[in-house]
Specification:
- Helix content is 22%, strand content 45%.
- It is built from four helices and seven strands; from the N terminus they run βαββαβααβββ.
- It has one domain.
- The chain is of the alpha+beta class.
- The radius of gyration is 14 Å and the shape is globular.
- A hairpin with a 5-residue loop joins strand 2 and strand 3.
- The protein starts with a strand and ends with a strand.
- The mean pLDDT is 94.
- The strands form two sheets. Strands 4-5-1-7-6 form a five-stranded antiparallel beta sheet, with helices on both faces. The protein has a two-stranded antiparallel sheet with strand order 2-3.
- Pfam families: DUF4284.
- This is Immunity protein 22.
- It comes from Clostridium ragsdalei P11.
Length: 129
């Protein structure tokens, strides 16, 4: 669901960047129809602006939200809003992050494990004050 000023965040753990790219890859049918990525299908994510999607594979694993988030757009605002609700320590170590800006995910699916990619919805947070 489109929502100005909100970012929805997923953390992921994968073997390498190719696994993450494959999980997020969008395809088209022979007729040119858009075919959702595994991420979109498995999390029931619809109607978001591809231009407002940020993905980052991090070379090191971390279980700290601020560590994974620090190099992302609007990181200070997002970390500030996150820390009002949650501890910086995550439930496990992750090495990737998916952010959908101006999107407020409903949380209908919390986690997904697809082959060598584990993805967990962390929450939706303010990125603009």
């Amino acid at each position: 669901m489109e929502y100005e000023g909100i970012v929805s965040i997923w953390m992921a753990k994968c073997e390498d960047i190719k696994d993450l790219q494959h999980y997020l890859q969008v395809n088209y049918s022979n007729f040119g129809d858009y075919l959702n990525s595994k991420f979109e299908k498995n999390f029931n994510v619809e109607c978001f602006d591809e231009e407002l999607k940020e993905i980052n594979f991090i070379e090191r694993d971390s279980d700290l939200f601020s560590d994974i988030m620090k190099d992302q757009s609007f990181s200070q605002n997002i970390i500030s809003d996150y820390s009002k609700k949650f501890s910086d320590k995550l439930d496990r170590k992750y090495n990737s992050i998916i952010l959908l800006y101006n999107f407020n995910y409903d949380g209908s699916v919390i986690e997904d494990h697809d082959n060598s990619v584990y993805v967990k919805f962390i929450g939706s947070f303010k990125y603009r004050t």
